[in-house]
Amino acid sequence: MTSYRLPKGGLIDRQAPLSFTFDGTPLQGLAGDSLASALLANGQLLVGRSFKYHRPRGILTAGAAEPNALVTIGRGGRTEPNTRATMQELYEGLEAQSQNRWPSLNFDVGALNGLLSPFLGAGFYYKTFMWPAPLWEKLYEPFIRRAAGLGKASYEADPDAYEKSWAHCDLLVIGAGPTGLAAALTAGRAGARVILVDEGSLPGGSLLFDTATIDGKAAADFARDASGELQSMPNLRVMMRTTAFGWYDGNVFGAVERVQKHVRDPVNHVPVERLWRIVARQALLATGAEERPLVFGGNDRPGVMMASAMRAYLNRYGVAPGKATAIFTMNDSGYALARDLEAAGVDVVAIVDSRPSAGVEYHGKARLVREAVVCGTKGRKTISAIEVYRDGRKETIAIDALAMAGGGSPIIHLACHRGGKPVWSPEKAAFLAPEGLKDLAVAGAVAATTGLAACLGEGAAKAQAIVKDLGLSCPPVAIPNVDGDEGADPGRPLWSIPGVKGKAFVDFQNDVNLKDIGLAVREGYSHVELAKRYTTSGMATDQGKLSNVNAIGLIAKARGVSPAEVGTTTFRPFYTPVSFGALTGAHTGHHFQPVRKSPLHDWAKKHGAVFVETGLWYRSSWFPRTGERTWRESVEREVLNVRKNAGLCDVSMLGKIEISGRDAAEFLNRVYCNAFLKLPVGRARYGLMLREDGMIYDDGTTSRLEENRFFMTTTTAYAAGVMNHLEFCAQALWPDLEVRLASITDQWAQMAIAGPKARTILQKVVDEDISDAAFPFLAAKEVSLFGGALHGCLFRISFSGELAYELAVPAGYGESVADALMEAGKDHGIMPYGVETLSVLRIEKGHVTHNEINGTVVPADLGFGKMVSATKPDFIGKAMLQREGLAAPDRPQLVGVVPFNPEQSFRTGSHILAKGAAATLENDQGYVTSSAYSPHIGSTIALALVKNGPDRHGEEVVVWNGLYGESTPARLCNPVFFDPQNERLHV
Amino acid sequence: MASLVPCPNCGRRPKEEFTIKGAALSRPAAGADAADWFDYVYLRDNPRGAYEEYWHHTSGCRRWLVVSRDTQTHEVAACRDAADGSRLEERA
Ligand SMILES: [Zn+2]
């Protein structure tokens, strides 16, 4: 026999049928169904195969803790594996697939694993690793990977949108069951700003299947009316389908709202999930309790279900679990279920109660078997009988559904997310939240309070206390009148069951059974953290929501101690799995890594630039022309043209910082290692910035535009870092200096015009005289352009070694000015050039970049020793730079390298060895930091950091690259390969 | 996932807006001993409990702040602008 839909009852809309498929089979459910209730209504008891043994599995719970009924929902990019059928609302057209089975759910080859189970027990992975390694790789691992698994993720991109949001409130109530509703009503009526979150689709929690009446109303109606009142309050926000998954510093809660996970076609301008960070002055945890399974043989057979779940399917969804049910209970809750089943016309064959007597009276038709346990089950893919063990005798009773009521474990996870440990209460026989949590209270079943009336009262009372703490006045709270409260005795936990036959599962999702726990204890892994890892109990996607407390109880029993002594493993966020989509939010693609375009981007594009991504920037790399087959051809043309005519290069992405104020010069004097105090107005100077440990941090030119106003450039990569550093110096180190800093990188388009014809071209657009006499090397001035139409800044600085200028104009004019310069230079052979050419030109001149300034070099290592001021009383890095190791003669220092044979080449990163020396770490002389093909030299040229480099010009060495197996005879030389006298700069 | 820093200029803001530099130490005077400089540049306490650090409100007011927080509980006891250096000097 099997489960089916009852003719009446439930909070479902019988006028609204919904079609869905399970493993391709078309089925029908009703609006208001979960996928699980719809499957049960269709008699689909078998919904999955277990992780390790591939045992047939059914629906065990009606909520978030579900370990078995994991299915894959949707298709393509919307495929969502490991969805709990119990949490998934049914919608028209839903497609669900079972998991971990082949070729089909009914006939699964992997079930043979069950026969191998003696080898797959606890510690299997550890022990297997001990076996010969080749076997592991070839045999065991592929076998395990094939056999054990959950759903498969899609390789397609997720088409849906996600977002993140913050919310703030006086009181956050987590859980909209009776306790949470009572609390929210109390605080809401008092005027507090309240947020109420609940993971379900309907407010009410257990009220949705409770048969008690509250103030004469059915429990579900009370829930509906209460939430109606809450929704009407402007100070109250009810967030359904929202799981609070973590408690963080500052009383911030993480929550994920499933906005459109219950619809087939998400609206594309609305996110499907929203990640919330809720800042709460106070919070109240009203998360209830999780019913524990009972650990008897075959407790995982489809048809076995938690008693509370069976009640939920019956009362909320109008689904009967079978035609002949049995209930195995250790407390009074089993009797309420029996009464509800019988009221719905479902036969209850037997109630098996582990206690000698019950706290409630029972007048139904079921046979009552007291002081007895269910020790085993029978059946193939679904349950057909139970074995009842009493007084040493076993009896088989035919049934088609079994409920198990193992008592409640408070859902205290969130309360333990900030380091607090659960506390075992011997009176309540439960792990409770730590005492004295700051700004977080617990109420209701999560505090091990039992009974509906007590929970309603406690929710209201705790809210009242919080409201008073918040400084609000609270109207008197009327405690509702409850009729039919099951209340009462939570019962004593029943950890181990006598006469167990067959596999008795502790952790259903990870297939950990009773024997595994016993084995772990026997083999010395009885510490709770070790047992967890040895058996993998509690390590599945459900994180042991159903199993952990049972495992602890069983370990305690095996060790002969109290569960308090065993303790729990650590609770960490997330309470239930959170999708990567929700955590990522809108930060995907270019929202994750935005494109940063120079103001000259479009100018470069129309000249055919090939772009390269450097950080967020898109920089023009080179500008190929028709007929050029390789990038090298383009770059060589650009290089030769700069040295022969002129080139224009976009350098807008250099960091630019304006430094002003009375003490600006003094400030620069302290942040650079060289002198800046006496830099004349209208002059630029190359500056080296050190770290406090004496190593070079960054370099660039800084120009004095006015007495108290400077224009600093930084390297592209360190623009943000230098800004932060300068702010630190100005604010934290020398707040007494009057200096102001502004990042102006994005405000200016900057272009280098380099080459012997640069002045001729530039003079056509610059109004002032820029002859060598009027505007010599390192001049820096604000200039007028196009007959006064525009103003910019002109700097006579050169990275290429040619006569060169950098012109900065307001960003929006960048493209027009570049166009004008190209037009002005048309007859003089001007060409655009990119960063590849820039790089070749600077290597030819021995100019350094962050290839050389790599965090290990001091100024002297790069030949800048004389730049460092000996007279300044202080600058960043001064003290540490004086360490003797930083002045050692054999430090790697800058040198040039060329191959002996111009036909040969070598790579950046290769190491330098003395001629004839073996390639060992001891013989390492240094390494190549930059290399390029120089069309002027006619071979590869390189810069390197080599021990005693400056004293070894002319020495024959070997450039060795172990990764590529290359060994190239080469010669050390002056790092300035081109125009060593700098004659071209000063023309 | 979350942590709020009470910036004196911007109010309580999420930690993602900040950059942490490390211990808030007083920079030695220019002529200080090599040992003092060595301490300043390299040596850090790693206390369990109260700790003062430089935090930069990079995506906010762009001020450097001195955040006093408990390394064990993450509780932020105080947060002041680093330019308000008087207390730093007193300690030193
Ligand atoms: Zn701020």
General description of the model:
The complex is a heterodimer of chains A (987) and B (92). Chain A has 987 residues and is an alpha+beta fold. Chain A folds into four domains: 1-148, Ubiquitin-like (UB roll) (Roll), CATH 3.10.20.440; 163-289 and 411-472, FAD/NAD(P)-binding domain; 504-566, Arc Repressor Mutant, subunit A (Orthogonal Bundle), CATH 1.10.10; 592-887, Probable tRNA modification gtpase trme, domain 1 (Gyrase A, domain 2, 2-Layer Sandwich). Chain A has 22 helices and 53 strands. In chain A, a hairpin with a 4-residue loop joins β28 and β29 (430-432). In chain A, α4 packs parallel to α8 and α16 (631-644) packs across α21. Chain A is elongated. Chain A starts with a strand and ends in a 14-residue tail after the last strand. Chain B has a single domain (1-25, 45-84), classed as Folate-binding superfamily (Folate-binding fold). Chain B has helices at 34-42, 86-91; strands at residues 4-7, 11-14, 19-23, 50-56, 64-70, 76-81. In chain B, the strands form two sheets. In chain B, strands 3-4-5-6 form a four-stranded antiparallel β-sheet, with no helix packed on it. In chain B, strands 1-2 form a two-stranded antiparallel ribbon. The N and C termini of chain B lie far apart (35 Å). The model of chain B is unreliable at 86-92 (pLDDT under 50). The A-B interface holds A 166, 246, 248-250, 252, 254, 277, 279, 419, 573, 692-693, 724, 727-728, 731-733, 735, 873-874, 878-880, 882-883 and B 1-4, 12, 14, 19, 21, 24, 27-28, 30-32, 34, 37, 40-42, 54, 56, 58, 62-64, 73-76, 81-83, 85. Residues 7, 9-10, 57, 60-61, 63 of chain B line the site of zinc ion (ZN).
